[in-house]
Amino acid sequence: MKAEYERVVRDCRISIKAFQNFNASMLGFGKLLSLKGEGDYVILPSVFYWAVIRYAKPFLDSEHEGSRFSYPKRSLKKQAGFVASMHDHLLLVRNKLIAHDDFYEVLPKMLTMCMHLEEEDFLIPCSVSISNKIISFPSDSETVELMHTHVRACAEGAQAKLKVDLARFRNMMLENQDLAKESAPYFNNYGNVSVSEDGSFVKPNALVDPWLEVSVPDYSELHGGYSYEEIKMNQDFHGPELVTMPSGKQFCHHITEKGPI
User: CA-CA distance, 219 to 230, in Å (whole number)?
Assistant: First the structure.
């Protein structure tokens, strides 16, 4: 059971990162559409690279505590707007043309101009001309629109899966209280709340809890550090719901929406 609990926690974490990355990629392609007609050859490829890299990140293998994993593409296949060929194309662009300069996709060329001594049948190189191309950004807005539509579908699908995963996590806590308490890295007592006769109460705002401040790498020995894009959200389970206690007693909980306290 502990292994199953840890797997559910891992699935939640994978979904959190995937949703944030897909959402950022969607915003990136949207920004690219808004820059139509611009001639800035630094900004345009920068935005395009950002959008492609953020899309691809969830599908690349990650490692944590000895396990390797990535976001499951199968969870998105039935999402309206998801296009398998576009998915494969964006990963190819990331892997072969953005993150790496692949020699099979784009091969630099060299042209040597020589002087030919006819009597000796001998070539004397006089110059070497070179050429290469590195991907910059899509050549038309229609292509960007197709990418934007596909990534938007992935963001919506990832958000839906995240809600399902968080519900699974909650159910595991309800069904395995001892395991949940044992595995929890943090506890905080927010104090008493007044529960009405129908079981309703106003919940505290967990988003302001200091424990939600995510730790980041420390590069202070090299420079002043980085700014980080942050995501915070609640998945509420307000009921009404009848919960059976280990003693057999039942409690009907129903959270009243009066805003956080």
Answer: 19
How many other β-carbons are positioned within 10 Å of the β-carbon of residue 156? 19
Q: What is the spatial distance between Cα 9 and Cα 67, in angstroms, rounded to a whole number?
A: 13
Q: Residue 235: inside a domain, yes or no?
A: yes
Q: Cα–Cα distances in Å, from 63 out to 82, 169, 219? A: 27, 21, 21
Residues 149, 244: one domain? no
| 37 touches 64 (CB < 8 A) | no
Note down the domain range covering 222. Answer: 189-261
Q: Are residues 24 and 97 in the same domain?
A: yes
Where would I find the beta strands (DSSP E) of 28-183? Answer: 62-64, 67-69, 109-117, 122-131
Q: Are residues 168 and 217 in the same domain?
A: no
Cα separation, 210 vs 213, in Å, equals: 6
**How many domains does one find in the chain?**
2
| Interval 15-66: pLDDT, tens | 999 999 999 999 999 999 999 888 888 999 999 999 999 999 999 999 888 8
Domain shared by 154 and 235, yes or no = no
pLDDT tens digits, 189-220? 877 767 676 656 677 888 999 999 999 999 99
Q: What is the dihedral of CA 80, 57, 160, 243, to 10 degrees?
A: 160
Whether the model clears a pTM of 0.85, i.e. scores above it, the answer is yes
Give the pairing type, strands 250-255 and 200-201: parallel
Asked if residue 115 belongs to a domain, the reply is no
